[in-house]
Specification:
Order of helices and strands: HHHHHHHHHHH
Strand content: under 5%
Radius of gyration: 17 Å
Structural class: mainly alpha
Number of strands: 0
Length: 225
Amino acid sequence: MIAIFINAAAIIIGSAIGAVARKGIRQKYINVLNTAMGLCALVLGCNVAIASMQKTHYPVLFIFCLSLGGLLGTLLRLDQHMENATRSMSTSNLAEGITTAILMCCVGTLAMMGPVMSALYDDNTYLMTAATLNLVTMIVISSSYGFGTAVTAVVVFVWMSSIYGIAKLSQSFISEELISEVSLVGGILIAASGLGILNIKDCKTINLMPALIMPILFFAIKSLC
């Protein structure tokens, strides 16, 4: 469990470093960092989605997850709530930065298998590797969006702690199938976030975030049947 705290701390430290560096960087260089971040998110998201697609046993499940998750997020007006919450913290598009940071830090094998390995085998290798990557990721993101992206630490802590707790209670529920489905949906959301950063298409990624919960609900219902 201590490794999850380290992940949250790495995000805060990375955000602080990036925010300090941001003050000495001219706007044109910040724009370059935004472009680089957008391209990385787009490529990484496509890579995660394609790799997960090859492992899935339910080829169309992600379509339903994205559709239902998007409808739920739009109904709850998540994008408006996020914008209102971040407007007082920054004049830049902080909501976009936080959304990107959450997806980059929460989606993938390290972020999901890490808590499972820690809970079942007391092996923190995945979590410590994730902490290192999160530190670097947050330095880059906060250098573009500011220290406000540090709130990502709260979301990551809750996400990892939840997976850790579920793994402790039910070893069989967190399966490779579940991880593949969540990673597939998450990869698509990361790519969508990249499109937004590059100003190609505003996919309202924050409204699609509930789609990450849909595979978990699907497997929970499936286990009861």
